[in-house]
Amino acid sequence: MSELHRTDYLVVGGGIAGVSCTEMLFTLDLDAKITLITATSIVKSVSGVNQITKLITEFQVQEQNVDEWYKSHQGIKVYKGKLMKIDPAEKVVELEDGMRMQYGKLCICTGAHAKLISESPHVIGIRDTASVLHLQERLHGAKKVIIVGNGGIATELVHELDNIEVVWAVKDDAISSVFLDPGASQFLVKQVDKERTPEDGVPCKRSKYTVDSQLPIEKDMLGSALGPDWHQALSATSMGSQDKKKTVDIKYNVQVEEILSYDQFISKQNESSDKSNCHGKAEDMKYPVYVKFNDGQIVGADFVISATGVRPSGDQFRNILSLTEEGAIIVDDNMQSSQSDIYAAGDICHAGWTWSKHWMQMRLWTQARQMGMFAAKCMYHHTIREPLDLDFCFEMFAHVTSFFGQKVVLLGLFKGQGLDDKYSLLVRVTPGKEYVKVVLEDGRMQGAVLIGDTDLEETFENLILNQMDLSEYGEDLLNPDIDIEDYFD
Q: What angle do CA 422, 428, 430 make, to 5 degrees?
């Protein structure tokens, strides 16, 4: 049996949640033995933190080689390895290489893996750094790609890809439905076919993430999730056929029924006398892969990008921890699992406490950071036997991102979630410039969607938090001639 190593705090996972947890522990308990286990040679670190509002934070996410990160965290031990076993009774973990470590407190931050629509070699998922580099390789010389999915990654990809024909397959009747209502989707859809301009490459005002192709990538090892602006790295690489203009064909209300090879496609064509459902001219139809949709259409492409969400990677712990059906570790309001001294944070966990009315869990990099930091605080406070209340960041949902070059801020119940359609909407639209929507229940703001540089996020955040009765203002609440920021200051 291998030597038993000992540590006070053990964090497993080199992504945003795991590194945020480790760095917070290092700040809280300088004398403690802290250990980070990462599956790859790369970790995601956060820098340049700037608090914009109470709940919206700007920061930069950088990927670093473990050795480089360790230079500024020399009080932390770092091991590269894959967690295989946990013995909660003995408080011992075992790695794939046989190394054993006894912990005082353990936090699992091993994230989630991409849901793939098929295991075909012509279908790729976008989840971690390795998959982005693989995408870059596949894009060289490609003329046509099919993107399946309607969330943030699919939306960002459609915007970023140039010099290529894009078929975007969405299961809903509007784009980006994970985040946006049909009205906001319609506002953005006019930007879909536009080629990116040089201005699209200027530094953005929010969290920035870059992919360094020089760092070593373990292709057979699940890496940590991507951070914000991961897609901007694609602009550094020539994409598609340079003599081809970008086009986007959006197919609404479709789902993938079957993935076909060229031979399978020809076989199906020979079996059917109806060629009308084939996408493209006969002479252009020889592609490596074809997608048959549930409406009968068959579309060919150089490859398919599956961007249909993620599944938490907690199934290996099902015999020792309480998990959801999809494999997420259930944690309480102190980020603790069903086993004493075992915590979880980020995409692998499910927030099992009673949520605040205006907060919800979505597997986003912002929440990964928040959960990782809060888990560290809980681990430390439990060590010194002090109670800790749920962090204020879980009081209201707040997220900032960018779709088609437009800043997007989502606040509270931005789609009226959980209000049972008992709400009203106020909307202000300036075509091509801004889209502002607020969700009201009994005259009180419950959520908001802000697209463009509206500068309303702090005001609306406060109105959602303090639940001020806005009934007397009516539609003037969004009157562009009224400076609402000063009015409610």
A: 150
Q: Which amino acid is at 213?
A: S
| Residue 265, phi then psi, degrees to nearest 5 | -60, -45
| Amino acid (one-letter) located at 337 | S
- Listed residue (429, 428, 470) closest to 446, CA to CA: 470
Query: Rounded to two decimals, what is the model's pTM?
Result: 0.87
Strands 406-412 and 444-451: what pairing?
antiparallel
Q: How confident is the model at residue 220 (pLDDT cuts 50, 70, 90)?
A: very low
Q: Which helix (H) or strand (E) holds 383?
A: helix 365-383
Q: Which of 112, 116, 157, 118 is nearest to 136 (CA)?
A: 157
Contact 301, 103 (CB under 8 A): no
CA distance 373 to 459: 26
Q: Which of 56-70, 163-177, 316-330 has the lowest mean pLDDT?
A: 56-70
Angle at 444 between CA 438 and CA 445, to 5 degrees: 30
Tell me: the pLDDT tens digits for 75-92? 999 999 999 999 999 999
- Take residue 336 and report the two structure tokens written for it: 């603790």
DSSP, collapsed to helix, strand or coil, labels residue 313 as coil
pLDDT for 195 equals 61
Beta strand 144-148 with 165-169: parallel, antiparallel or unpaired? parallel
Question: Contact 42/130 with Cβ under 8 angstroms?
Answer: no
Burial tier of 283 (Cβ tally within 10 Å: 0-12, 13-18, 19+): exposed
Retrieve residue 384's tokens: 């010194």
| pLDDT tens readout for residues 386-440 | 999 999 999 999 999 889 889 999 999 999 999 998 899 999 999 989 999 999 9
- Single out the residue of 190, 212, 171 nearest to residue 64, CA to CA: 212
CB neighbour class for 115 (10 Å; exposed up to 12, middle 13-18, buried from 19): middle
CA dihedral 156, 157, 159, 164 (to 10 degrees): 180
Distance, in Å, from the CA atom of 477 to the CA atom of 438, rounded to the nearest integer, reads 9
Q: Are 5 and 98 in contact (CB under 8 A)?
A: no
pLDDT on residue 487: 64
Residue 392 one-letter amino acid: F
113 and 222 Cβ atoms separated by less than 8 Å:
yes
Roughly what angle, to the nearest 10 degrees, separates helices 16-28 and 365-383?
30
- The secondary structure of 263-301 as a DSSP string is HHHHHHHHH-S--TTEES-GGG---SEEEEETTS-EEEE
Largest Cα–Cα distance of the chain, in whole Å? 75
